[in-house]
Every structure is written in C-alpha cells, then in structure tokens.
TrEMBL record:
Pfam families: DAO. It comes from Gimibacter soli. This is FAD-dependent oxidoreductase. Residues 6-394 form the FAD dependent oxidoreductase domain. GO terms for cellular component: cytoplasm.
Length: 415
C-alpha cells in the first residue's frame, strides 16, 4: 500500500467502486456511511439491476418540455410532480431545458457513451475478480414498444448506438416470442441491447463488493455525516459518533451530496428523482430486465421474485412515499406479462441523484485540493459506477484521465 488513505463519504455503489479501484492502485480507503453497504436505505439496493449499455440520450432532449407537460397531465404516466414542490424545482427544470439544445445533447450523449464503454469493461473485470458470474449475467436490456410509431421515434437513439459502437437487435413479434415467450404478443417491435448486464440482486451485489473490500483491509465507519469543513492539511468530517480528519476526501453521497458540501460553500444543481419498486412472487418466466417504453415501467427477475420499478417523482428528499402511481401501472404490467403474480410482497422508495445535463459530477472540486466529487448519476448509477470508480481512482492516484473526465468536471457548475 502507498502511504495514503482516502476517505469516502458514501458506501453505495459509487463509493464502493471508487474504493475498489483505489485499493487496486495500492491506496488505503476509509468508507463512512449511515447504513451498512447493501442496506435497503441505499439507492443501490432497490433499482432494476440493469447495467444498461447503450442508453446515452440525456433527459433534456428536444421535445422535453412538451413531453413533460403531457406526462404530468396523464394520471397513469410515471412522472409525478406535486404542485407544492414546483416552485422549488422550477430552477432545476429550467436548467434541464437549457441543456436540451442540440449541441449540449450531443456532448452529453458522447460523454455518456464514453463512460458506458469504460463501465462495461470495468464491470466485466469486477465480475471475474469477485466471481459474481451467477449474480451479474449477460442477459441484455429489453425494450418493448406498443406501436410502430413509438418504435420509429427511437431512430435517433438507434443512430447513436450505431455511432458509438453499442450492440443491439431489433426484434419483430416472432423474434420477441422466441426470446421471451411469457410476454404477451402485443408488441410490434422490441430492441434488445445485447451488451447490457443484469444483476439478479443489486443489494447482495453491493454487499459482496463491500465484503471483498473489507477482506482486503478497507476500513468502514458506520455513522451519519452531518458536517464537513476545511482543516489544516485536509477536511474534518463530523457527524453522529464521527470526528474524522481526511487528508483526501471523496463525496459520493448521492442525492444527499449537496447537504454534505454545504459547510464548504459548494453547491451544484443536484435534484432528486424518486423511484419506486414493488416485489411480487416468482419471475413469471421472464429472463431479463424488460421495460415498456410507452408506460415507462420495468419488470426484472430477481433472486427474491419479480421486481417492478417505475416512476420519476420530483418531490425532494423529505416527502412521504406515495405508491399510488406505481400501483396504477400494475395492470399494464399484467397485460405485458400475463403470468405474473400481482400480490405485493414488498414496496420500496429510492432517491436518484440527478443533474440537469444528465452527466454526473466526477472530479476534483475547484479551490479545494484533495476534495473529489462523485455523484449525480441519475438513472445510470449502477451502470456507470464501475467506470466512475476506475476513472476517479486514476485521477486521485496519479492525476491521469483528466481529459477523459472533463465533460463531468464540477467546474462546469462553478464547483
């Protein structure tokens, strides 16, 4: 080991991947989080488990405003925005709209493609190293379209996958039936993104990575960080039972990262896309994560049963869970997969940390030597975690990769 110890605030998938790659480079790590890795309180726990290789279009693409209005007015759409939260989120939505211009969309798609290629290679290496092949499988990511017209709207997306070298197949009804016979024969077109991986239990995957790090000498501190401030030669990290001096510090606190940075005078336009899941018995014969692209819900076979994920609820970190919207989509899920059971076994709410240009913040904070930011991955946290960890570890260890990380630099938001 080098005579360095990097403190990471955040023990979710981003923090753990960063720790893994730092330790691969001989740097010791201390990880601090309020809950153990893999706990259901983490956003890493309850997602769809897809390493979605090929999803590069940003949130703020052309047509964003009209699509948003239409979805907000539809009581069965996955987009939920309480009236009480609109004044607070309006500045962030304005920034999303500003990022929907052609040049910014192209730049964001290119950056996402770069990070996806990096992440796929890093995920594959990690699966081999940790012997996770039964848990993380090359099953792909399946998208279903209810109409030919909705499929035709994917022309830009398919062109980007072609341009950036991502594998996919367009399926007609016969090919779809052969691939997934349990899906109802009501979809004229589907796309299988063939390089995507499927995690059959995201929480267990995170726990396995944490156990590997612990066995290699990583230090874990359990406690809620409430305040970070400058110190001579580093940063004081303070909280419930925590009084820690960090010489080098990574903030990987997901949707809570702005709160962690408040004492340092740093703030970026970070918002929260709340997402829900429901768990049902069995897998109904489904082989891979599958998304209905007209209704925007995902059905994914898990070790624990069949998981349904849905919703983008723009309501911040404090609002109580509201499962009404995802439950309205269960009938559509049953129509898609007639063999599924619909008695709920479990419910869950998670908090996606999202930036207006759909690019995470990765890199050293300006004017704060030794302080690194790694958050804001939105819907691509599991996918891009491995690439984020590998690239950020290279930057911390030896300053390498700054040009590759430039599109994600905190400086684009003045941080």
């Amino acid at each position: 080991m080098q005579d360095r110890n990097v403190t990471i605030v955040g023990g979710g998938i981003i923090g753990l991947m960063t720790a893994y790659h730092l330790m691969e480079r001989g740097i010791a790590v201390t990880i601090i989080d309020a809950v153990p890795p893999g706990d259901r309180a983490q956003t890493s726990y309850g997602n769809a488990g897809s390493i979605s290789i090929g999803n590069v279009l940003p949130l703020g693409k052309p047509g964003f405003v009209m699509d948003g209005i239409r979805m907000t007015l539809d009581p069965e759409s996955p987009l939920v925005m309480p009236i009480s939260y609109m004044p607070r989120i309006a500045p962030w939505l304005y920034k999303v709209w500003r990022a929907s211009g052609r040049a910014t969309v192209e730049a964001s798609a290119k950056a996402s493609a770069l990070l996806s290629h990096e992440s796929l290679a890093a995920w594959q290496a990690l699966v081999t190293d940790l012997k996770l092949s039964e848990l993380v499988r090359p099953d792909g990511w399946l998208k279903l379209y209810e109409t030919e017209a909705s499929f035709e709207k994917t022309a830009k997306e398919r062109a980007l996958m072609d341009r950036f070298g991502f594998g996919y197949r367009v399926l007609d009804p016969d090919a779809l039936a052969e691939l997934e016979p349990g899906i109802a024969p009501i979809y004229p077109k589907a796309i299988l993104q063939t390089q995507s991986l499927a995690i059959r239990n995201p929480g267990r995957c995170v726990s396995a990575l944490a156990s590997h790090l612990l066995a290699r000498g990583a230090a874990f501190t359990l406690g809620r960080v409430t305040h970070i401030e400058r110190a001579e030669g580093g940063y004081y990290v303070k909280g419930e039972g925590i009084d820690h001096l960090a010489r080098e510090l990574v903030i990987a606190g997901g949707a809570w990262s702005n709160r962690l940075l408040k004492g340092l005078g740093i703030r970026v336009p970070l918002e929260t896309e709340r997402g829900y899941h429901l768990m049902f018995d069995g897998g109904a014969g489904l082989s891979r994560p599958t998304v209905n692209m007209n209704r925007y819900f995902v059905l994914c076979p898990m070790e624990q049963g069949l998981r349904m994920t849905a919703c983008v609820e723009l309501a911040g970190l404090e609002a109580k869970p509201d499962y009404r919207r995802i439950r309205r989509l269960v009938a559509h899920a049953k129509r898609m997969l007639p063999g599924m059971a619909t008695d709920e076994r479990d419910q869950w709410l998670g908090f996606r940390p999202s930036m207006p240009d759909t690019r995470p913040v990765i890199g050293e904070a300006g004017g704060h030597k030794g302080l690194y930011l790694a958050f804001g991955h939105g819907h691509m946290g599991m996918t891009h975690s491995a690439g984020t960890g590998r690239l950020l570890a290279g930057l911390i260890a030896s300053g390498e990769g700054g040009d590759v990380l430039a599109p994600f630099a905190p400086a684009r938001f003045g941080a």
